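Bench notes, bay 3.
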Amino acid sequence: MVKSAGCAAKLFPYLLSDILKDINWGTDKNVLVDFSGKDDAGVYKISDELALIHTTDFFTPVVDDPYTFGQIAATNSLSDVYAMGGIPLNALNIIAFPQKEDLNILKEILKGGNDKAKEAECIIIGGHSVDIENILYGLAVTGKINPENIIPNNQSKKGDILILTKGLGTGVLNNAVKYRRLDNVYYKNLIETMTRLNKTASELMIRHKANSCTDITGFGFAGHSMQMAAESKKIFIIKVNNIPVIEGAKWAISEKLLTRGDKSNRIYTKDMVLSRGRIETTLEHLLYDPQTSGGLLISVPESNAEKLLKDLIENGDTHSKIIGMVEEPTEDYKPGTLIFDYDD
């Protein structure tokens, strides 16, 4: 019922950057984080002990089952609060639905979103709807955090280790759902990763004193990691062969089920990506694949990395892997550079 699915339906990132840059958005002293730094959410200070985290996310369906779609969309919307180290408090539904269609579909979408919000202990308190042809669903979420405890995307330190908590490949697998009959095992793994909250991963990164974090969504691993490296004024060295991959994603790429985001994310990052070693084409596609409800990319001190990884795996984020490290820029590598190392 829709033209493009999930986070692959986003506006192209390089176009969005151009649109946003010439508008005087305004600010005040209580705005601690806004979108000028390409962070995951906005943060507004209420007091010395309390700040509110504000974010919104919504997209078109990625699967045919409406209840499952509602769960995925809510999980994705909540993720930005977790990426900042915050706790979701409440949310508003964002709904677009053609009311000439079966309204039970919309009811199931809302049930799925509500159940996932309840799992996050986040209360849905209202929303807004419009009658248009394309289905859209998501949440505007408010969370809380102590201003001293914000984990932004711009504080990665030299020597930090990079950990990714979910496998890549949701974009191509969602295309497989749309255009092919996806193997049941592949489908089950895909749904599991897209409906798994980043709640535990967020709590654990706080415990192990992470310096920076972002969640991997529509701009792909390359786009979001580039933003984090650039805002931290560092370079990221990525061991590509260590990156976790959702089962079935390589098959989907072999079937040429790429999304339009594969191209737009390459354009967005093209001046900041260098490759070492023999490039493995399948893995390269996954670096640019737009993720729906992806994992957290965490920058953590080296002394805490193994302990964090162990806790992540033991507490359910079993795809978590150490995938790289943070270094200072040099004359050859400017801030924001990603070095994709394909050597074993």
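Next record in the batch:
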Amino acid sequence: MKTSFSIRKAKASDMSAVLNLIQELATFEKEPEAVIVTEEDLIKHGFGKVSLFTCFVAEVDNQIVGMALGYPRYSTWKGPTLHLEDLIVTDSFKGKGIGKALFSTFIRFGYKQGVKRIEWAVLDWNSSAIDFYIRQGASILNDWRVAQMDPKAMHQFISKTQ
């Protein structure tokens, strides 16, 4: 039996469910304690005076079961781009076309905005996600590495360079 679902732009009132999906992803990625963002943060950052991200949600029977969240970036080589931070479908609804619909909605959103690139990161061990992205026409770059600094590393850097 086919699952009926809808995709729509998220509202502030959806952020509790979005946070649950974020936590589910963190658990899947073996970092359940890494999520420090709160529902209030998501509301403030996504629906305040300046929106830092755009989010689309998937619903089944008025229950949010998936989301795609991204934000604008700028490439010095290409111009405006979008970063897809997370594409999540709750485990019990995977394989029903919801992820592809969310992905498609996000790609169409960026295309309509005229961005020159949409990019995202995928863990090297997440073969099902990598296979999904390749089937959608994405290129998986093996020669780039992600670099990050958390607040502790930023503080240490600033302390050393003063």
